[in-house]
Amino acid sequence: MPGRPEMKIVSVVGARPQFIKAATVSRAIAQHNASAGDSIREVIVHTGQHFDENMSQVFFDELAIPPPHHNLGIAGLTHGAMTGRMLERIEQVLLDEGPDWVVVFGDTNSTLAAALAAAKLHIPVAHVEAGLRSFNMRMPEEINRIVADHVAKLLLCPTEEAVRNLANEGVRGQVCNVGDVMYDATLLYRERAAERVALTTWNVRERNYALCTIHRAENTDDPDRFHAIWKALCAISRSIPVVFPVHPRTRNLFPREMADAGTNGIAIVDPVSYLQMTRLEASAKAILTDSGGVQKEAFFHKVPCLTLRDETEWVETISLGWNVLCGADTERILAGWAAIPSRDRIDGSNPYGDGRAAHHALHRLLECQ
Predict the structure, then answer these.
(1) How confident is the model at residue 304 (pLDDT cuts 50, 70, 90)?
(2) Which of the listed residues 58, 128, 243, 348 has the most CB atoms within 10 Å of its CB?
(3) In a domain, 185, yes or no
(4) Structural domain tally of the chain?
(5) Does some domain include residue 244?
(6) Do residues 206 and 279 lie in contact, with contact meaning Cβ atoms separated by under 8 Å?
(7) Are 215 and 291 a contacting pair, CB within 8 Å?
(8) H-assigned helices in the chain
(9) Residue 186 belongs to some domain of the structure
């Protein structure tokens, strides 16, 4: 017979990377409860930041995340409007639920709103993926993660570099390196993706295509940057197919660009599920992306990555030789593509933990109760 719940956690998610991270934590909670007598109750709040079924519900289904107890349905607004409405709605949820902890993930507007709402109500915040820094304050994500870190009580870092960043800023919360929960997810779902997802879905073969994702405002809101990236993709596609799952905010950019450049070798597809993306990442020759999560997943799969940004918070992927910063410069992207190294010649070290980051994070949370 289950025992009386000893702790209530509110986990706040809103975007694709957060669903993946939250799935590992929910799984660790379920395993803990199975052995400890139902001692933790998790209440999941979905802000609605990613509302499209292909960007949201499919992740809950594939990753077996418990259905959200609260779905706030807040999306499609400016940063200020979205964060403000989330802050208001999350505050009410927290007043109603009265949790012992609020757990936030990553660096989205959902992260910021949940961290602020909890802090103002004097509810302790645990930040999963704390301490990351790009040192580019023009990135909304950088502002979100810095604020979340400075109001959090428990900072659950994925790497030692993240721990050092927090020490340099004088962050006073409890800081610990638990490893990367996304590495947990990769190990859990990679084999399942290989079994369930066929590359023929996209008419490509193993190691004989490039995968591209673009979604950051710095690239999608700047026509010159997007055009330079697109020009490089068109050049690459003349020798190898390019699979390009298109983020909803990016699709509006394509009519003019497609007319200007042509897309014979570029397969523009709708957003893919987590298992589909895992399969595409693991089997690509190389990945081109401006996504922090996809950079890291490329590293986990040991697939070379060209990052379409001028900096990255995942500096370990650069130092170990798996990732190259190319910005939005056509020539740099093509030079990076031409210089993609053989996998067996790159450093095989892994600074992201032992694949049990979610369990370590939960253990720290229980210790701080």
Answers:
(1) very high
(2) 128
(3) no
(4) 2
(5) yes
(6) no
(7) yes
(8) 16-36, 57-62, 79-97, 109-120, 140-151, 160-169, 181-196, 217-220, 223-236, 248-251, 254-261, 274-283, 292-301, 315-319, 330-338, 357-367
(9) no
Name the β-bridge partners of 125: 102
Residues 114 and 255 both lie in one domain: no
Q: Does residue 173 carry a pLDDT above 80?
A: yes
How high does pLDDT run on average in the chain?
90
Residue 176's DSSP bridge partners are 156
What is the DSSP-derived secondary structure letter of residue 37?
Answer: T
Task: Let me know whether 209 and 251 are in one domain.
Answer: yes
Q: Look up residue 129 and give its amino acid.
A: E
293 and 229 fall within a common domain: yes
Residues 160 and 143: their CA atoms lie apart, in Å, by 21
Pair 146, 224 in one domain: no
Identify whether the C-beta of residue 118 lies closer than 8 Å to the C-beta of residue 124.
Answer: yes
CB-CB contact of 51 with 72 (8 Å): no
Residues 88 and 206 in one domain: no
Q: Among the options 46, 127, 215, 360, which is catalytic?
A: 215
Kindly report the CATH number assigned to the domain that includes residue 300: 3.40.50.2000
Q: Say whether both 216 and 253 belong to one domain.
A: yes
**For residue 242, what pLDDT is reported?**
96
pLDDT at 293 over 80: yes
- Confidence class for position 301, pLDDT limits 50, 70, 90: very high
214: its two tokens: 């673009």
**Does the model's pTM come out above 0.85?**
yes
Q: How far apart are CA 46 and CA 69, in angstroms?
A: 8
Segments forming the whole domain that contains residue 217: 192-345
| Cβ-based neighbours of 43, under 8 Å, separated by 6 or more | 8, 9, 10, 11, 69, 70, 97, 99
Please indicate whether residue 70 is annotated as part of the active site: no
Token digits of residue 292 = 């922090």
Same domain, 34 and 144: yes
In a domain, 1, yes or no: no
pLDDT of residue 263: 60
DSSP 167-180: HHHT--SEEEE---
